[in-house]
Every structure is written in C-alpha cells, then in structure tokens.
Amino acid sequence: MSTTHVAHGSLISLAASLALLTAGCSGTADGAEAGGCRENGGWSARDEARWLRPSVSFPAATADGSTADEAAAVVIRPSDTDDGGPLCQPVTVQVEFWELTATASGTDMTSALRYQLATDGTEDRDIGFPPGLSAGERGACTGVLMAAYAGARLSEAELPEEIGRSASTGSGDVRFRTDRIARHRLLPPSDPEACDADGEPTASPPATPMPWGSNHP
After folding, report:
1. 3-state DSSP call for residue 149?
2. Edge to edge, what strands does the sheet with 74-76 contain?
3. pTM (2 decimals)?
C-alpha cells in the first residue's frame, strides 16, 4: 500500500473520530446531554411550566376537598428520568398561597405567602400551608388558592379576574391569565353563604324564649 493511501485512510479515521466526539458533546436530538442532564438554556417560562407540571401535586387536598393537617400542601417531586434526566440549568419556581375571604358581596383574594426556589428536577420539595390556612385553622368564610408556577412573581395582570363564583361553588375552575402556571388547586370557603360583609360567619339569631316554663306540656 502506498504512503498516499495510508495517509488518506488515517484522515478518514480522524474525521470519523471527530464526528463521534462532536455528536457526544452536542447531545441527542431530544435535548439529553452526554453529561446526563437535559439542555434547557433556551426555554421560555411556558416551556418550564410544562416541564414542571407532572412533578407538582397537592397531597393535602383529597377528592372531596378535605385536607389533612399533617400533609404538605404542595409537593414538588423529582422529574422522571425518562424525560431526559435533570435539567442542565435550574429553573426558578414560585409556590404561592392566596387567602380567600368570602363576604356578603363576593370573595376577596389576598396573597398570604410565596416561596421562591430553584430546581433542576433532582430533589423533593415539601411546602406546608401558611399559618392560619391549614384545614384545622380555616373558618367557614376562609379558603385558599395555591399554585406552582415558573419564573418571577405573578403580576396583577396575570392573576384571575374573578374568583367569586369558583370559590362559592368549589368548582376549581380558576383561570389565571398566563401560561406560566404549572398547576393550581382551589380549596374554597366551606360556607360562603353564611358570611357577613367582614368575612365573618353570620351570627345565629338568638333563640326565642318560650312564654311558659319548661314543664309546660
């Protein structure tokens, strides 16, 4: 074999090796990196919310709307490894609670507590109710809305426009005006119809005394 043929064969082998090396560094078509993480550098907040959604649950809220005080309000579990493994860059996640107060004229919504965390999908995060909003602490006129979402804190323009009917019926049909919400859960006031203008249970009318003694037949 000539020197020319040997050199040519070496160049082909070198080119093939470089191609394999480049493929290993750039990752696969589905975004999984050779280092075991999923590339997310160009993701939008909507992409992050979609990735986060399967990992968020509300274990303290059962199917009938009741809650268990000992359970976490919001849980963020590690993401499924079938989804490309952990993210190469952690994403910012907000977990926010709003207190709902039923009044005679509607339902008021006030932010009660907000947690900000960063996650790449490898850790469990358990978040409890804010003080006064667990099942054992909420009164008949108090409910709670909770949500996990991607990015910065929600602006006023991204919050639900109307929550009164959802809170009074317990339908859970709360419409945030943004696509950054991963998941949300509504636990409405238990008896909104019995609440006064200040969000307090309406006092029961005093019993009418009998005009005769208790021994009267």
Report:
1. strand
2. 56-57, 74-76, 125-127
3. 0.73
